[in-house]
Specification:
The chain is mainly α and about 140 residues long. It is built from six helices and no strands. It has one domain. The protein has helices spanning about 5-35, 45-70, 70-85, 90-95, 105-125, 130-135.
Length: about 140
């Protein structure tokens, strides 16, 4: 195993926890201040926001457990999807521009996206051997 993959494997639990915390912070802020988020329906119950976080996090926990249990490929795939979902918070900006959101709204949105990016990069690095095998098989003119 390469040094990069070893480092990525060591970082995985920490980046997973960081991303889970960032998503919880963003979803909790959404649930508590939903009526203040620009152009979002104030009628959404906060409980449904927490339920969405629970489903999202269950996907991540399943991916992490599968990876840790030896099902590396499917575990990485689920972790990758979990991390990609962190970009969903940026959809707030399709409803209203950045300036229409409070500083805390922007902070939670960007923290979730940043943590998701770190986790996604780590997951990609964990599977780095696949890319090497494909490039070695390619014919170079």
């Amino acid at each position: 195993m390469s040094l990069i993959r070893v480092a990525a494997a060591r970082l995985l639990p920490w980046l997973f926890a960081l991303y889970a915390a960032a998503t919880l912070l963003h979803f909790a802020h959404n649930a508590h201040y939903l009526a203040r988020y620009p152009n979002l329906p104030a009628s959404w119950p906060g409980a449904s926001v927490y339920a969405a976080w629970g489903v999202l996090t269950a996907l991540g926990v399943l991916g992490f457990a599968l990876y840790a249990g030896g099902a590396r490929r499917i575990g990485r795939s689920l972790l990758g999807v979990y991390a990609l979902l962190g970009f969903g918070g940026l959809l707030h900006y399709t409803r209203a521009p950045l300036a229409d959101h409070s500083a805390m709204m922007n902070a939670t949105i960007w923290a979730e996206a940043a943590a998701g990016t770190l986790l996604l990069v780590d997951v990609v690095l964990l599977g780095g051997g696949t890319i090497t095998r494909i490039t070695r098989c390619a014919k170079v003119p």
